[in-house]
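Customer ticket, subject: "Can you confirm the structure for Methyl-accepting chemotaxis protein?"

Message body: Hello, I'm evaluating your service for our small team and ran a test protein. I'd like someone to confirm that this is what the system normally returns, since I don't have a reference to compare against.
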Amino acid sequence: MKNEPISQPDAAPLDPAASIALGLATQLAQSCATIESRFSGTGDRLTECAMRLNEVSAAHEGLPGALDSADFASAEASLASISRELAHFGESDGSEDTAIVELRDLAARMGEPLVELRRVMLLLEIISANAGILAAELSGTNGELSAFTGDMVSLAHGALNGIAGFEHLRLALLSQLTGAAAAGDRFARTHADTLTHVRERLDGHVEAILRHRRSGGEQYSDNAAATRRIAARVADVVSAMQIGDITRQRIEHVQQGLERLSEQLQPQAETGDAAGDTGDDTDARRAATAARLRSLQQAQLRSAIEEFGERTGFIARSLPELAADTEQVLADGDRQARALTDTSSDTLTAMLEDLRKVRRLFSDFRAVRGEADRMSAAVAEGIENMVAQLRTIDRIERQIRVLSFNMAAQCNRLGEEGRAMMVITQQLRELAIRTEQASELVRANLGKGAEAAVGIAGAKARSEKLSELDGATEDAITRIEAASEEMRGHARTLSERGPGALDILRKAADAAQTLDEAEAAWNQVLHELEAGQGAAPEADAEIDHILFADLRRAYTMDSERRIHDEMIGGGTSGTDSEGNEPAVAADDSDDDFLSALF
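Agent reply: Thanks for trying us out. I re-ran your input and got the following:
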């Protein structure tokens, strides 16, 4: 600072000691300008580091925890249930398939009696033609024979129509049964090994997950605890970083004290009442106040420098150690995480693949079952229609018998003339017998077909059970996919947050080596204060208690108050020697909490 000459005649020259004190205050003010930003920035980064390490710790616990959750336990229980039901499914008697094959065979076997019935009705037409010729020769004698032959032709035509309808129904049914049987065969060929293979693999997957859980739980719990401990140590360093703000405030208070010292060192004419002096102040009192004030600022500055050096030293030592420990813990955790995620991911992927195979099996079964359900309805309708057609044939067979009986009676009345017609009557009886035999065979097959159709309908309960099982499988897939995604999320956290935390620590460790740069400037100020120290005032010399009370009220740290009270006195016990109000009580909530770190 350059002193300008004062033009006023009563201006006193600037005291050199006051100028020095003011210059020292300026030096302290300049050092405070950078300390806060440096410590604050490093502290913020370390806070972020601690947060990242806590996320890493949670990820370490979450990796095996994803396999130990309630949702995943439910999926495991579903796997066990699915495996048991697949065993029952594979051990089923195949009654539905058997019923379809049996129905198909029955429908095929009904073709032979239908051929016989058609043959009989064609013979009936031939016999009717022969009977018509004989009836024409005998028509002059008896016109009733011509009526009989006409009935024979009508019966033959009706029977042939009924047989044709029956055959159409049989062929349609046979086609459906053949298609259903082929679908069943395809299903069996496609999934011949699926049931056994998947069931065995599902059991293996459950055992593998149990192994992963046993091996990973304790190990990852240790990793999580180690990472949490490092995060807590980082938090301790973050707390220690508050020394920057603490010291800044203490240096500012020393700066203010030096400014007051400069005022005390100014000649009385320069300061006047502005310095707070009264007309009663004496040079001795001002000298004693300045001497005591200089000693106080020396003590305050020395204490601030010592505490700052101690804590920045702790920070400078701790951060490189933390970086090295973090690097080791993260490397171990990353290696274990890769081992768990790789093996469990393979297991979960294989598990999902097998469960999807089970779902495809269920889907194929539903397709086959749907065909069987449609075919079952068609079988029931077809059998009902064929039974109706069979009743028509039975009615024609009875009419043939009645016709044969009536013709025989008529021929007996004709005597010798009716002998030729008796041969036709005998043929009619034989055709009636053959019709009855063929009808009985068809009827027996239809009865067996109705029983077989019950077996197809009875498979619906099994289908409904598999539908429930399919729903359980879908739910298990959803839960396992959620566990897989959760594990992938934790793995991403480890791969992203861990290296970032380590990078912050390394940079903070480098920055911590220069945190004490301001200490050299403070020591220089302290040295100059000590060099300018004059003779100590007498112990009972009067001082300006109001000035010192003002200084004490500005303190924010308990350590400042203790030093002040030790050197100046007063403090918290009543009034000072001038009768002024007590100084502000010491606040125990300042920087004492940091002492636990050192």
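A couple of notes from the result: Confidence is low (pLDDT under 50) at residues 1-11, 270-280, 572-598. The two ends are 41 Å apart (CA to CA). Feel free to reply with more questions.
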